Amino acid sequence: MPITLLPSLLFAIIVVGYSPGPANLYSLACCLKYGRRKALKMWRGLLTGFSMAACIMVLLTHFLGELMGDYVSYLKYLGALYILWLAWKMWRDSGQTDTEAKDCSFSSGLIVQLTNAKMLLFELTAFSVYVLPYSNKLIDLFIVAILLLIAGPGANLAWLYAGAYLRRFFSRYRKQVDIVMAMLLALCSVYIVLQ
């Protein structure tokens, strides 16, 4: 990738990564409902899932190039179903406090990120626009994958800390916040399918 494209890539990372999406909303919701400490455990799952997905996408892009682009889009349906399931659980349990926080766990974060069609498609786009026209070397793909950590786990962490900051205010409106977050997650799943 020519260095002249770096500002464009960084701008895309900020716009796509920090805009509302399934993992960002899930980070916010977990922190609002369970607090920062429990949400950070879930965030480690998001980080692991994003890293795994990025490595898989790098290898697939390297070996299959743009041929795989058509098949990656089918993952969006799996991701949308999982996000819809999370929204339903959040709606069902709205207003309840759960000390176990089983819905805000490492494994839930891992699954959210591995099925996050928004990020998978963004990774594929970033590789095919910023790397493949100039190089097919694994190292070049991995460098961009490392930069994409700013978009994925970096943005998720920002949304999580926003939730920590807003938690005291929203604790008075727990049920309403849970319902709104569930509706936003459901809208994300619809958006993913229609994309």
Structure description:
- The chain has ten helices and no strands.
- It is mainly α and 195 residues long.
- The two termini are 27 Å apart.
- The mean pLDDT is 80.
Explain briefly what this protein structure is:
With 195 residues, this protein is mainly α.
List keywords for this structure.
single chain, 195 residues, elongated, mainly alpha, 78% helix
Given the C-alpha coordinates, what overall shape results?
A: elongated
On the 0 to 100 scale, the average pLDDT is 80
Reported for the largest beta sheet, the result is:
none
- The DSSP helix count reads 10
- How many beta strands in the DSSP annotation? 0
Spans of 5+ residues with little confidence (pLDDT < 50)?
A: none
Task: List strands and helices in order, with pairings.
Blueprint: H1 6-18, H2 22-34, H3 36-64, H4 69-72, H5 75-92, H6 106-114, H7 117-130, H8 138-148, H9 150-170, H10 174-194
Helix pairs in contact: 1-9, 2-3, 2-9, 2-10, 3-6, 3-7, 3-8, 3-9, 5-10, 7-8
